[in-house]
Design a protein that fits this description.
CATH architecture of the largest domain in chain A: Orthogonal Bundle
Largest sheet of chain A: none
Structural class of chain B: alpha/beta
Mean pLDDT of chain A: 87
Order of helices and strands of chain A: HHHHHHHHHHHHHHHHH
Shape of chain B: globular
Largest sheet of chain B: 6 strands, mixed
CATH class of the largest domain in chain A: Mainly Alpha
CATH superfamily of the largest domain in chain A: MetI-like
Number of helices of chain B: 14
Number of strands of chain B: 11
Shape of chain A: globular
Mean pLDDT of chain B: 86
Distance between the termini of chain A: 22 Å
Radius of gyration of chain A: 25 Å
Oligomer: heterodimer
Chain lengths: 403, 357
């Protein structure tokens, strides 16, 4: 049978029946009207000076100006590692799959990235020096992507296997660059802010709540009563308390309980509270994965002579975590958005920065512009998490769709 | 039937004893002649000051990352008086609900966060704070359209009034209108954004909030001149700084640094002329008041545990009370707030410093 033309397909999709046609027309009209109003506001009414003038504040908060080279260095390292990882992911697929170096998605991503990388500094009217840096960083991501895609197969086996370790390493390097240490002058957490603080809190909590959550999930399914009851108690206590309550407890009660000087900085206190909070939810996601796995898996592994911990690590957990992955990523995205609650305890993260900026008499009443930019920033971060998780799911999927 | 005390019983009985011991320990620590807080601030070389951080004119963050505002300048004044350097302040943004806990747990040395002084906040049985001098006489006000012809609260009877719900603002409005026996239609909103949007759309004839906040919001309206604040306050909101209750030496230092700002305005000492006034006082032994105030004579600074020239340092850093007010809230700023009750007592206001002697 002949394939229908593009026009025919469009017609079938939107105007199959008179009712379909009516719905299409009404929805299109509503979309156009809404889009026109939004565009009109964006271009003619909104006053973007509040974003332009405060762009540094939104990005890094009150981080000392003369130390900001450290953040640029970190951004460059992250950009390089991202590009390389991306290229290697395409060049070295799972052994049971065929490598597609430039799938359509990647070409779209490159187009979007280069477009945004060039346009955003121009739209924000950043100074030439800063715009140049952003352009170079964008170029670096793309160059690394190309290089790794082109030469990735030439890597020795040990480098291929060890490559993912670059991320925990980068985390440590990054925290050293941000906070200081090893000869780099210290910058107090009290000066961190904006997107920087949001990402620090979220990354710290996401990295730590995962192992904690797995341990709690295993504890809850353990045959040892004490371990089981402690895990249940912890999980149910945390899930029964709102995050904001726990944050207040962490900020104010800890100061009363511990002698002065022994309490960690309030930024880290908040990060630990976020971690402990998310761990309870991750534990339940992991438990759902464990429950979904037939008990035969464990029995078969034991029958093969594997000791319990090996059977758990090599057979049960890999399968359970794969099942739990979407729920866990959902939890991570929640966690990223929960960081906005930190503004209520006086931390200077993205929302806190925004509220401080909106209190500047020069920018009173510019709420819409500020909140819109915040929404876009959060959407980008969450979209990145979602994309990453989808790539991981595809990679972990043992039953790939035939290409 | 009496039975032998169990282990748990023993432990439980020991708890009050231990608690008593802990309390005695605290009492001994607090009753020393030396101020722990003052010593701690000096040793740290930095003052930790709790501010709102999100209140126009009072405290906010400028694009260069510096804190600015009326209450921020008070923190800088205290840092200048104690440490002779206004830059040695670490600002902590505090929410309304955590501010008192932050003072009592020692998280902040000084609370400068638009806190209304009330009995229950001062009393040992309440929040147990120690308040500094009142640095801003505020109150809840009502804003109406200039063209509406409304000049008194009574005229709002039967009219819709916009108010943010869940605040004392809402309760004050209800109380005052009940006293006037004037029925009105409250239009309640969850947040300020909605409240002012509704007022601008004309859904209510008036909107009520703190006078300074109303003035700040008005500055963002399309036509600020078309809106007026009614004379007369719905409530008294005297704002003062606060410190922990158990440290009178530290409270005195904060109190007299704040009074120094007010006295400097009364004596005509400004940021610009403080050096020449100091030279004048040093040269002229007859200016006894000025010599004492600026630390040329006497031991005022020493008695407070501060440097002898603390007043000079404070005024050099932030200027006098009037300068701070004009810079952050005054008629030349976008907040556009008249001095009103916050004038010097010599001009008919309430700002009054006890003598420096």
């Amino acid at each position: 049978m002949e394939r229908p033309s593009a026009l025919q397909r469009l017609r079938a999709a939107f105007f199959a029946s008179p009712l379909d046609g009516l719905i299409t027309v009404v929805l299109l009209a509503a979309l156009l009207a809404g889009g026109h109003a939004l565009l009109h506001w964006l271009v003619f009414k909104a006053q973007w000076a509040v974003i332009q003038v405060n762009s540094t504040l939104f990005a890094v908060g009150r981080y000392p100006l003369d130390q900001q080279w450290r953040l640029w260095l970190l951004t460059t390292l992250l950009a390089g590692a991202t590009g390389l990882s991306w290229g290697l992911l395409r060049a070295l697929p799972r052994p049971d799959r065929r490598a597609v170096l430039w799938p359509a998605n990647d070409r779209l991503a490159v187009a979007l990235l280069s477009g945004l990388g060039v346009l955003v500094p121009l739209v924000l009217q950043l100074s030439t020096a800063i715009a140049l840096r952003w352009w170079s960083i964008t170029a670096l991501v793309l160059a690394c992507r190309w290089l790794a895609g082109r030469w990735g197969t030439a890597l020795p086996a040990i480098a291929r296997r060890g490559w993912p370790l670059i991320w925990p390493l980068l985390y440590l390097v990054g925290m050293t660059l941000i906070a200081g240490g090893f000869g780099v002058p210290a910058v107090s957490p009290y000066r961190w802010g904006g997107l920087l603080l949001t990402l620090i809190e979220a990354c710290f909590a996401i990295l730590l709540c995962f192992p904690l959550g797995v341990l709690l999930a295993l504890g809850r399914r353990s045959s040892l009563p004490l371990l089981r009851w402690l895990s249940v108690l912890y999980i149910e206590f945390i899930r029964g308390a709102p995050l904001i309550t726990l944050l207040f407890l962490g900020q104010n009660i800890l100061g009363l309980l511990l002698p002065g000087g022994f309490t960690p900085d309030r930024v880290w206190r908040a990060a630990w509270v976020l971690t402990f909070f998310a761990a309870a939810y991750v534990a339940e996601a992991v438990r759902s994965g464990l429950v979904a796995l037939p008990p035969g898996q464990m029995e078969a592994a034991r029958a093969l002579g594997l000791p319990v911990h090996q059977a758990m690590l090599k057979v049960v957990l890999p399968q359970a975590l794969r099942v739990a992955l979407p729920a866990m990523v959902g939890q991570f995205i929640n966690l990223l958005q929960d960081t906005t609650l930190l503004s209520l305890i006086g931390l200077f993260e993205l929302l806190g920065t925004a509220r401080a900026v909106m209190a500047n008499p020069a920018f009173i009443g510019k709420d819409a512009e500020v909140y819109l930019v915040l929404a876009v920033l959060f959407w980008c971060c969450c979209a990145a998490l979602g994309l990453g998780s989808r790539a991981l799911e595809t990679r972990l999927n043992t039953n790939p769709q035939p290409a | 039937m009496p039975h032998p005390p169990s282990l748990i019983g023993k432990v439980l009985r020991a708890v009050p004893l231990l608690a008593g011991l802990a309390l005695t320990g605290c009492a001994v620590e607090g009753s020393g002649l030396q101020s722990q807080k003052l010593a701690a601030v000096k040793a740290r070389g930095e003052l930790v000051c709790g501010v709102d951080g999100k209140l126009p004119g009072f405290s906010f963050v400028a694009p260069d990352g510096r804190y600015q505002g009326f209450e921020v300048d008070l923190c800088r004044a205290v840092a200048a008086g104690v440490l002779s350097d206004p830059a040695r302040v670490q600002f902590r943004d505090l929410s309304a609900s955590e501010r008192f806990a932050a003072v009592n747990s020692g998280e902040v040395d000084l609370l400068s966060r638009s806190t209304t002084m009330t009995l229950s906040r001062d009393a040992a049985g309440g929040n147990a704070l120690s308040f500094g001098p009142i640095h801003f006489y505020g109150g809840q006000a009502v804003m109406v359209n200039a063209g509406s012809g409304i000049t008194t609260l009574k005229q709002l009877a039967g009219k819709p009034i916009c108010v943010t719900t869940g605040t004392t603002t809402e309760l004050n409005l209800a109380d005052r209108m009940r006293e006037l026996n004037a029925a009105y239609m409250p239009l309640k909103f969850q947040n300020d954004g909605q409240t002012y949007a509704a007022y601008l759309q004309g859904r209510c004839v008036a909107v009520t909030s703190d006078r300074a906040l109303l003035a700040a919001k008005r500055s963002s309206f399309p036509d600020p001149k078309a809106h007026v604040l009614l004379a007369g306050d719905l409530s008294k909101e005297p704002l003062a700084t606060a410190t922990v209750n158990g440290d009178p030496v530290w409270a005195d230092a904060v109190r007299w640094i704040t009074f120094a700002l007010m006295q400097a305005e009364e004596s005509g000492i400004t940021q610009a002329n403080v050096e020449s006034k100091l030279a004048e006082a040093t040269a002229d032994p007859n200016q006894a008041d000025l010599r004492r105030f600026l630390g040329v004579d006497g031991q005022l600074g020493q008695q407070l545990g501060l440097p002898a020239d603390f007043v000079v340092q404070v005024i050099k850093a932030v200027g006098n009370y009037g300068e701070i007010f004009d810079r952050n809230l005054g008629v030349n700023t976008s907040i556009n707030l008249a001095r009103g009750t916050n004038r010097q007592w010599t001009d008919g206001g309430l700002i009054y410093s006890p003598p420096f002697r």
